[in-house]
Amino acid sequence: MPVLTAGAGKTRLHETLALLTSQLRPDANHKEDMVFLKDVFSERSLGYLMKIHEKLRQYERQSPTPVLHSASSLAEDVAEELQSGSMSTEEKELLNLLLSPHLKAVLSVHDTVAQKNFDPVLPPLPDDFEDDLEEESVKIVRLVKNKEPLGATIRRDEATGAVIVARIMRGGAADRSGLVHVGDELREVNGVSVIHKRPDEISQLLSQSQGSITLKIIPAIKEEDRLKESKVYMRALFDYIPLEDKATPCQEAGLPFKRGDILQVVTQDDPTWWQAKRVGDSNLRAGLIPSKQFQERLPLRGPGLRDRRKAGLRRSFRLSRKDRQGSSGEGSDPGESEFLTYEEVTRYQQRPNERPRLVVLIGSLGARINELKQRVIAENPHRYAVAVPHTTRPKKPHEKDGVEYHFVTKQQFDADVLNNKFIEHGEYKENQYGTSIEAIRSVQAKNKMCIVDVQPEALKRLRTSEFKPYVIFVKPRVPESRRRRKNSLIAFLQQDEDLQEMRQSAIQIDQQYGHLVDRVLIKEDSASACAELRGILERLERESFWVPISWVRT
């Protein structure tokens, strides 16, 4: 590793970063690591972040304070002075600025902020507050709580009847104070005894308290150590609405999320209720979510949630390849075989000289994904390619083996099916067709991005660390209805039936396989869909994405 020169101590952070990058030299033993570090350090966004950091630190050292507290009145005085005599062009422009309502509003806000001290100040303890001096272990906790929840849940101890702090929500007011811990016994809230109150009455008392809140607690015998924030990330595979879950210990503390959201699980101490944050959410306070084990026991929690999850999974639907027969490799239905909860994920970015990720297209009726795939590949055949399928039909005179198809005998095809070599296969007009795993590997070996379109059942077979597939669900924009043509009732009814089938196809695929999809592409027309797909493929090569952690673990 290179050593910086003595003068580098006075160099600014972003300049040090640039100097470090220039001194990275790949060697035979660590070539890939050095190339990776150089790529990371050379990112323009990282350099910008370093410059922003330096500016903020410089601003912090200056300890900025308002120059004056009456900018509005000063602007009024200047405007009055300008109007008292003849004005030049520049003075007229200045007057117009000073009289504009937007600048007046900005100056008014400036004065309001400059005249106030926004640091929280706790009022003194009331004179009539009893400290319970006979109990040496009693502790008085004063918190500043605005309109946010306190960030703690309580429970009644069945043996003693005491009100106990059950959990502390990470990032909430109680957690930030560092003064309240799991296991503490709560005695009073703002001087009101809670010993004989029900938990819901206590929760209401806590939620209604604003500004300063005073708690009298008896600390737990063994206070838990404040754990460092976890770096476990989960992709939600279902929708969750705390207000509809009667099992949650505190609906207000629950974290709502949708399928596909990335959740940072900050603690799994409670085997039933985890604490988590949504990645990208500005709210720093964690919320409660059902643990994986608890969510899998949904039948014991009531039929409502599970009924909504399983709705539609038993109904058959018409696939886009409706004329085909056969199976898609293993022939299993991921929606029926397991009850989906969470999938642990991590960020992944394709490295230089690493095999490109597989791109998988699935589509509902009317999506015409093969046409979309072929158009993108034709635009750039040096970067993208299709896995050449196998078939038992006779080769036509203009065709070449291994180009349009791999032409094989029926006996060879059946043997390959038995050996599980196809990701999907089927029959069309008494001929067999199939896409093999080796065909995909052959494309990737040429350092090309392989694009395949398959029926959704094949996804489970493809989701492996070898292929790291990026799944795109293409569905056409389906209008609500079409205008009825005169004297064409039959055609109108047929069109309406087709539209309904297209909608139903998209709904069914989403219900059964939506948790495996990385991106939904709404196809307005071929040109716009092609442009959107091209943009997705380009980002796959340069940006990082969330993938199952099992794909990158060695």
TrEMBL record:
Q: Does the keyword Transit peptide apply?
A: no
Sequence ranges assigned to domain PDZ in this UniProt record: 140-221
Q: Where is this region: Disordered?
A: 299-341
Question: Per the database record, which ranges form the SH3 domain?
Answer: 229-299
Which keywords are on file for this protein? SH3 domain
Q: What is the lineage of its organism?
A: Eukaryota, Metazoa, Chordata, Craniata, Vertebrata
Protein name, entry field: Membrane protein, palmitoylated 3a (MAGUK p55 subfamily member 3)
State the superkingdom.
Eukaryota
Gene that this sequence comes from: mpp3a
Listed Basic residues bias regions: 307-319
Known Pfam families for this protein?
Guanylate_kin, L27, PDZ, SH3_2
Which PANTHER family does this one have? MEMBRANE-ASSOCIATED GUANYLATE KINASE MAGUK
Family the UniProt entry places it in: Belongs to the MAGUK family.
**Annotated CDD domains:** GMPK, PDZ_MPP3-MPP4-MPP7-like
SMART domains attached here?
Answer: GuKc, L27, PDZ, SH3
Q: Where do the Guanylate kinase-like domain residues begin and end?
A: 356-538
Can you give the residue ranges of the L27 domain? 9-63, 64-121
